[in-house]
Amino acid sequence: MPRLLPIVTAQVAPRPAATALDGFASEVTELLAAHPETRLVIHPEMHLCGVDGTTEERHELLQAAAEPLDGPRTRQLAELAGDLGVWLFPGTVCERGSDGALFNTALAFSPEGRLVASYRKIFPWRPYEPYDPGDRFVVFDIPEAGRIGFAICYDSWFPEVARQLAWLGAEVIVNQVETTTADREQELVLAQAHAIVNQLHVVSVNAAAPVGTGRSLIVDPEGRVTAEAPDAEPVVLTEVLDLDQVTRTRTLGTAGLNRMWEQFTDADAPIELPLYAGRIDPRRWRPASAPRA
Fold first, then answer.
1. What is the spatial distance between Cα 166 and Cα 168, in angstroms, rounded to a whole number?
2. pLDDT for residue 175
3. Per the database record, which ranges form the CN hydrolase domain (predicted)?
4. Domain limits at 247?
5. Looking at the 3D structure of the chain, how many domains does it have?
6. Is 49 within a domain?
7. What separation in angstroms does the CA of 91 have from each of 46, 88, 175?
8. DSSP string covering 128-184, please?
9. Cis peptide leading into 127, omega within 30 of 0?
10. The pTM is what?
């Protein structure tokens, strides 16, 4: 069976945090009505925690919007995913940790109405974001499709994130973004670069105007852009991700040539990485394999 994953990415402006869930169910329902074969719906970073004002005012509003993962917002989103029978990535949210810390957290809900994965942004955009950094990489499996890895916005500027997710077996990296600044141009290059050097799909969905700069895009494992928003206006991008393409690219090579996951043999000496106080061990270089249906 081919491993196909039909997705919808919604390049839209954030919803006000105080009333974020009002009408969100209708928003997702309308997307599915227009694209009934969709298995996965993706919204941008902070889609349900939109705030405005000075930096100090924004930080106060984000603190007020924070909820623990077992709070009412999560329960409502899980019910929505279950009612619609779809995988739902509703955009990242402000999470209140058990010790009071504030996290920028991506959520994945299953068609059965369960929260199956959550990822805390490891690289908050300092000094502008008030979040505490997460401490672990997150991948999870969508049955009969493949393994998904989470990254959030500024994470994409650190190639270690994409490499680690690929090593954990990710075949798709979903990068939820709320870029409001002039560096979206560079982020587009980074999305393609991560796809190429890790031989996987990258989905980078940004917020729309008037908050975000848009230009969401979807990149295949050879680095080709298969869908792209031309500007910051609200738009819906659709694509059917072929996760078998990851296997083909890694087996046959990018452009039929480069197979970097096969670079090392067990006989090669380890390469020291002083920056990380670690090393590349050739015996551990190859990525994990996602379970097959």
1. 5
2. 98
3. 5-243
4. 4-284
5. 1
6. yes
7. 6, 9, 10
8. T--PPPP----EEEETTTEEEEEEEGGGGG-HHHHHHHHHTT-SEEEEE----STTH
9. yes
10. 0.96
